[in-house]
Amino acid sequence: MEHSTASDSAEASLDERDPTTDDGESLLFSALVGAIASIVLSPLPGSTILGGALAGYLTGTDRGVGTKSGALSGLFVSLVAVLFCFVALAFFSIFAIAGPRGVFGLGILGLVVVVLVGLAVILLYTVGLGALGGYLGAYLREEFE
Q1: Is the pLDDT of residue 20 over 50?
Q2: 118 and 85 in contact (C-beta within 8 Å)?
Q3: DSSP states of 16-64
Q4: What is the pTM of this model?
Q5: DSSP assignment of 56-87
């Protein structure tokens, strides 16, 4: 009958830990905190980088998990941005589709193109910069621990 040592139990606890945490908060929680920070700091340019950095810092020193957390934070921010854009688009689409006679209108196809390009830009900006911030946040936590 073998006796387990303290080092065996420490190795087992390291192998059984949750992959979404690295001595930090969970991936989803830190992404939500980063998204809230991005929305609060939205008047500042690059607020999604700051929110992603906070999310990446909270997740821990693993840069891959920090990048995922920052990207998820940016995705949450993009949901809010898309909601505001759809409200504005619903208001202004009345003028784009049905303009007075003889005035150039955008039309339905033009409106669809504007929506798709706008969604792509929003996702690229928020998710891309959030992922960059998440990577930087995990890097900063690694450097200062």
Answers
A1: no
A2: yes
A3: TS-TT-BSS--HHHHHHHHHHHHHHTTTSTTHHHHHHHHHHHHHBS-HH
A4: 0.73
A5: HHHHBS-HHHHHHHHHHHHHHHHHHHHHHHHH
